[in-house]
Every structure is written in C-alpha cells, then in structure tokens.
C-alpha cells in the first residue's frame, strides 16, 4: 500500500462525514471518489430522519479548516439556551453559556448534505457516484464491494474510508468476518419527529433562539427551529409500557399530548397523521475495534455512533475528519509512515474521545428529560457559571467544554467534568441560593481538585 502522500481514495457514504472528508482530502491534492447508496441529495430529503441537527464549535472548527464555514453559516439558526416548558405551560430559559459566542446552531440535515456535496463537487472536483451501494468488504484486503444498476464490482481504490453511518455495511461485513468486534447498545427509548409549522403570519410560534424541551422525567419532547420558521419536534419515549410508542390510536395519542404537552397541541395540527406516518427511530451506541482492516478505515458514525442527547454525533464525525487531516499534514511535512500506520494512529487518538462523548451523551439524556426540572439543577448551573467567572480557564462547565471548547478533548472534558460535578455538589449540598455558597471553600476546592 502506498504512502499517505499518494493513492486512489474512495469514500463510502456521502453524508456529512463523507463529504467533509472528501473536501479536506481534495484540498491535500487527492482525488477522492464518493460512492453513495442514495439518489443525488435534495433540500427536501430528511422526512423521518432527524431533520435538523445542532452544530457546535467542534463542527464549525472542522468546517473552517475545510474553508467552508462561511457557506454553512447561511444555514445556521443560533440557539442560546434551553427553553424549558413545564406541564402547566410555563417557560424558563436556561442559557447554554455566558459569553456572546457561546451558542449552538440548528442546521437542516438535508440542506447541509446538499451544500457539502455541491462544494465538494463544484469547488473541488470530487466525483460522486450515486445509487451505488457498498454491499461487502473483503476481509482479507479491505477492498469494498459495491453494487450499482445490478452490477457488483470491487472498488478500484488504494484506500477506502467507510463513512456509511450508524448502520455501516462495511462494519457489518468486517464484523461478520470476525476481524472487527462490535458492540451495539440499543436504548429502550426511540424517537419520532413531528412538525410545528410556522404561524398564520409566517412567523415562528415559539422563541426561535432556543432549543425547546418539555422534560417529563421518563420521556421528553424537544424542538429545534428551521429556516422556514417551522420547528422540528422530536418525541423521545420508551418503546414499550406506560407513556410509550406502543400507544398509536388517535384518542390515546391525543390524550397523551393533552396531558403531558398541552401547550403543543394547538401548535402541531397534523399530530396524529405525523405520529402514525413517521417511523419510530431506534437509538443506540455503537462501538467497535479495530476501526480498520487492510485498506479500509471506518470513520464517523460507522466507527462510533452515539445517542443524540448531547447533539454531538455529527460534530464528532467532523472532528474525526480534522484529526485525520492533521495526521496527513504531519505525514506530508515529515514524509513518515504509511496508510495502515496512519489508520492506527487515528484510532489511538480518537477512540478514547469517542468513548467519552458516547458516555456523556447517555448521561445528558437523564439531564434533559429529568434533572432540568429540579430547582437544584438551576442552582448548580448558576454556580458553575459563577465558578467559571471566578476561576477562568480552571473551571469550565462540562457542557461548555463539550460544546464551545474544541481545544479540550472529549476525554478531558469528561475527566474534568467528574471532578467539577463533585465540587458543585458539595458546595450546593447545604445552599439554596448562590448567596449561600461558601466561596472560600470553593476557592480551596478548585485549587486542590482541578
Ligand atoms: C434523532 C437524531 C438527532 C441527532 N441530532 C444531532 C445533533 O443535533 N447534532 C449532531 O452533531 N448530531 C446529531 N445526530 C447524529 C448525526 O445524525 C450523525 O452523527 C451524523 O449524521 C453522522 O454522519 P455520517 O456522515 O458519519 O453518517 P450519516 O449521516 O448516517 O451518513 C451516511 C451516508 O452513507 C450513506 N450510506 C449508508 N450505507 C451505505 C452503503 N452501504 N453504501 C453507500 N452509501 C451508504 C447514507 O445514505 C448516508 O448518506 C442525531 C442523530 C439522530 C438519530
């Protein structure tokens, strides 16, 4: 296999990860070919799969590295915090950060796919082969086998990046052949998307600068704004049991919404139609090792799919592309190594971090659906901001580290987050307000623990 400076590259999957990787590789002088099982992307795609995604600093950093952040900015709707909706219809805004730049962005998945494809194809000459599906990977060599128009062929490539998502065929094939070990941990909760259309005057019917949450303990509803002034709401429920997706009758669904999310009932006119016609998605964490075999490397969701509760899956996939690009940059500078070595380095650098965000994403589900309802949650959040003000750089709230600090790795955010949570819990154990916190003790704890 040739050195990373050269080689014919194929990318399986033209989703966010595959297309961004294609652009970064093209900027390094490679001529990647993207094979995508679906048809050419259109802005209308997305029904049934999460229609908008939260983009945060790690993702934006990656887009900047590829020289395309200015284009993506046109698609971004800022969300500065969570708007918590209580069962009585009351709303409370909890900011995500405390600096002007500390916001996340709602982005249409379909519009992003269209844009990344256009930039890759038109500005960088990347070839896309649509309706071309990877159906197998040769476990001896890592060659990808693709099917298009009924014909099966071996992809003509020296290197294959499998960016074919959470249900990766490449991963499945290599797992079946016994060369990769895969763990899939499915959540007993699923999700379903519902639409909150724009109002009669064409305006947003909810505050657009927030991610809306209706936390109800064992389940929740969330909503993110879209450029057409609608919101995409996502209902997260258990698959079975009380308050679950098992209920599908119109009266049951209507009664459930009137009981739990009464303020949304007038906002979702097609509630039952959407409820029965939109698929219930499954959620889970996928981990596997090793991430490569011969000429194939798994990347993005294909290597490490996570649950969506930290809004980081795509951001992490974009960060993968940055790490890979940095390794290529290093190799170009010193002429060292080959592709297998680069793949091994990539996995060594990335897997502790993707493991950390997978765990933090699961924890965040508990926080979003339950803990945000607790008055102590607000006190802990306020204290975290106060400690950040008093001890800048030393104490950074974990959510901020993950969402706003790409310079802090996921693993480091998780490690520091555990220590900080302990400090905040101790300081708020006997305080009900910020004024009641012992800040001399806080200073000592920050000094000794962080
Ligand atoms: C409900 C939900 C909400 C989410 N919200 C967020 C969020 O707010 N923020 C965030 O960062 N992430 C979020 N995510 C995660 C995010 O969607 C993924 O992490 C991201 O899409 C991963 O990108 P990818 O390119 O690796 O995979 P994908 O987006 O899955 O793209 C894979 C591509 O490969 C193609 N493909 C698949 N199989 C084959 C094959 N055999 N041959 C050829 N092509 C193939 C597919 O058609 C697709 O185009 C969410 C996920 C879900 C389910």
Characteristics:
19 strands; six-stranded mixed beta sheet; binds flavin-adenine dinucleotide; alpha/beta; globular; 450 residues
What is the secondary structure topology, with strand pairs?
Blueprint: E1 9-12, H1 16-27, E2 33-35, E3 52-55, H2 57-65, H3 69-73, E4 77-79, E5 81-85, E6 91-95, E7 104-108, H4 109-124, E8 127-129, E9 133-137, E10 144-148, E11 151-154, E12 159-162, H5 169-176, E13 181-196, E14 210-215, E15 220-225, E16 231-238, H6 250-260, H7 271-277, E17 281-289, E18 292-293, E19 296-298, H8 301-304, H9 313-334, H10 339-369, H11 375-390, H12 398-404, H13 410-428, H14 439-449
Parallel strand pairs: 1-2, 1-12, 2-8, 5-14, 12-19
Antiparallel strand pairs: 3-7, 4-7, 5-6, 9-10, 10-11, 13-16, 13-17, 14-15, 15-16, 18-19
Helix pairs in contact: 1-4, 1-9, 2-9, 9-10, 10-13, 11-13, 13-14
Residues 12-18, 35-38, 50, 53-54, 133-134, 163-166, 169, 191, 234, 281, 300-301, 308, 311-315, 317 line the site of flavin-adenine dinucleotide (FAD).
Give a structural overview.
It is a single chain. By secondary structure, the chain is an alpha/beta fold. It is built from 14 helices and 19 strands. It has helices spanning 16-27, 57-65, 69-73, 109-124, 169-176, 250-260, 271-277, 301-304, 313-334, 339-369, 375-390, 398-404, 410-428, 439-449, and strands spanning 9-12, 33-35, 52-55, 77-79, 81-85, 91-95, 104-108, 127-129, 133-137, 144-148, 151-154, 159-162, 181-196, 210-215, 220-225, 231-238, 281-289, 292-293, 296-298. Strands 6-5-14-15-16-13-17 form a 7-stranded mixed β-sheet. A 6-stranded mixed β-sheet has the order 8-2-1-12-19-18, with helices on both faces. Strand 10 (144-148) and strand 11 (151-154) form a beta hairpin. Helix 1 (16-27) runs parallel beside helix 9 (313-334) and helix 9 runs antiparallel to helix 10 (339-369). The longest helix has 31 residues, at 339-369. It is globular and about 65 Å long. The two termini are 45 Å apart. The mean pLDDT is 94. Flavin-adenine dinucleotide is lined by residues 12-18, 35-38, 50, 53-54, 133-134, 163-166, 169, 191, 234, 281, 300-301, 308, 311-315, 317.
């Amino acid at each position: 296999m040739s050195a990373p400076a050269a080689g014919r590259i194929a990318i399986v999957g033209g989703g966010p990860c595959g297309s961004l990787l294609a652009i970064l590789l093209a900027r390094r002088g490679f001529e990647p070919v993207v094979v995508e099982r679906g048809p050419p992307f259109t802005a209308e795609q997305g029904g049934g799969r999460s229609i908008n995604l939260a983009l945060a600093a790690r993702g934006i950093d990656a887009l900047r590295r590829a020289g395309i952040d200015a284009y993506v900015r046109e698609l971004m709707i800022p969300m500065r915090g969570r708007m918590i909706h209580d069962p009585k219809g009351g709303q409370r805004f909890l900011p995500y950060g405390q600096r002007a730049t500390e916001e996340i962005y709602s982005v249409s998945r379909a519009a992003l796919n269209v844009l990344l494809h256009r930039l890759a194809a038109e500005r960088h000459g990347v070839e896309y082969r649509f309706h071309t599906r990877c159906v197998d990977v040769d476990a001896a060599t890592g060659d990808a086998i693709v099917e298009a128009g009924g014909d099966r062929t071996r992809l003509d490539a020296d290197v294959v990046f499998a960016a074919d998502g959470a249900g990766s065929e490449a991963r499945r094939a290599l797992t079946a052949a016994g060369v990769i070990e895969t763990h899939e941990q499915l959540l007993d909760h699923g999700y379903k998307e519902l639409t909150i259309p724009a109002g009669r005057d064409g305006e947003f019917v909810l505050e657009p600068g927030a991610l809306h949450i209706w936390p109800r303990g064992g389940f929740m509803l969330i909503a993110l704004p879209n450029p057409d002034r609608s919101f995409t709401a996502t209902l997260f429920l258990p698959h079975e049991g009380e308050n679950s997706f098992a209920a599908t009758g119109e009266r049951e669904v209507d009664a459930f919404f009137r009981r739990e999310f009464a303020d949304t009932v007038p906002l979702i006119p097609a509630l039952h139609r959407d409820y029965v016609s939109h698929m219930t998605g499954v959620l889970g964490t996928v981990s596997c090792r090793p991430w490569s075999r011969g000429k194939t490397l798994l990347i993005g969701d294909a290597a490490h799919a996570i649950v969506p509760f930290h809004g980081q899956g795509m951001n992490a996939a974009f960060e993968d592309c940055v790490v890979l690009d940095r390794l290529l940059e290093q190799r170009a500078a010193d002429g060292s190594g080959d592709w297998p070595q680069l793949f091994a380095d990539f996995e060594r650098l990335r897997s502790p971090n993707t493991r950390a965000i997978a765990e933090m994403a699961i924890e965040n589900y508990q926080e979003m659906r339950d803990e945000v309802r607790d008055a102590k949650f607000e006190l802990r959040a306020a204290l975290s901001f106060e400690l950040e003000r008093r001890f800048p750089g030393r104490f950074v709230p974990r959510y901020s580290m993950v969402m706003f600090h790409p310079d802090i790795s996921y693993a480091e955010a998780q490690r520091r987050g555990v220590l900080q949570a302990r400090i905040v819990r101790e300081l708020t154990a006997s305080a009900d307000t910020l004024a009641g916190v012992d800040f001399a003790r806080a200073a000592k704890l920050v000094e000794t623990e962080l």
